[in-house]
Predict the 3D structure of the following.
Amino acid sequence: MRVVSTAGRTTRMDIERTVTLNNGVSMPTLGLGVWQMREGEETENAVRWALEAGYRLIDTAKLYGNEKSVGKAIRASGIPREEIFVTTKFWPTDLIGVDAAFERSFRKLDLGYIDLYLVHFPSFVPGLGRPIRKRTWRGFEKLYQSKRARAIGISNYGVSQIRELLSSCSIPPTVNQVQLNPFSYDRELLEFCASENIVVEAYSPLARGRKLDHSSITPIARTHNKSPAQVMIRWSWQHQTVVIPKSSHRERIIENSEVFDFELSPEEMRTINSVK
């Protein structure tokens, strides 16, 4: 992903910027995460407001229990399906298997196809972690080859687990979705994924709202006439990641999208890199 400096007001074109995955699929670089949102009105409203604000990436998961509401809001938006990128996830210890789990998510979303399907978490069942991971990824490869998902990837994988996957896979992951914010910053993982042409997707970029008053971030926010949340999102984005802040409040969803009309300097990036 190439970071481009912009000036002036954030536009829909800014919000709809994309990165090309290693299989040629384009993915927006800013999206809405819907973790911990309730099925029904809360999720439907958040997705609707995000789409109205220009977001074109929505990230859900089987585990979140709100896939049905995500699909309903997208269908009701009137936006052409091909303009919206939808991610959902497979829980690796789901005993029904990859195909059946995918089919359940597919039916709940009811959007015709899924853009990105992720292994939600590497399995840590004692003594069975590696076999389960290999079996799961074989299922993902078959799913991708059947064209039922436009891209496949992983979530919460560390460097050693990615190396393990790459040593045996036929189709490499396109994305690794991980927690990334100034207080959860793994430079080695970012560099390794970049070297393997795997896009890093940052969830919890706002550290769940617990560090918005940090003494190193608030002065930078004042300098740019931005909120600390906007600075933290911009920091993740300038690390060439896809960023998916979560909010169910309309004004914050809009605020979180207004991060393309300023740029953090190299010195500011270094300062934020080193916060504790």
